[in-house]
Write the structure tokens for this entry.
Amino acid sequence: MSKREAQAPGAQIGKLLEDLNKTRNDIGKKLEYDMRLKEELQRQLLQLTDDLDQCRDRMAMGKKQKKKYDSNLQETEMAIQKLDETAKKLGATFEKIRK
């Protein structure tokens, strides 16, 4: 066996180890990136959850206000209708008095 043939398997093993270390480092970098991405997404999710809660609170308050305004409008329309009826009765009464 020649000296060159004896070194060839050692060189191949060295190259294999080098490739394995490079792959390991690449996987490590991808993991670090994914961990940072996960933390950022969790932060964004927390912010979006807070925003959603605030939006729901505003909607609930808005619905209560709208219901109150609807009630007030209905009461006002009924009062105007009664005033109109009363005005017509008084108009008819004054018309009778004038004759």
Remarks:
- Residues 87 and 93 are 10 Å apart (CA to CA).
- The helical segments are 3-98.
- The chain has a mean pLDDT of 92.
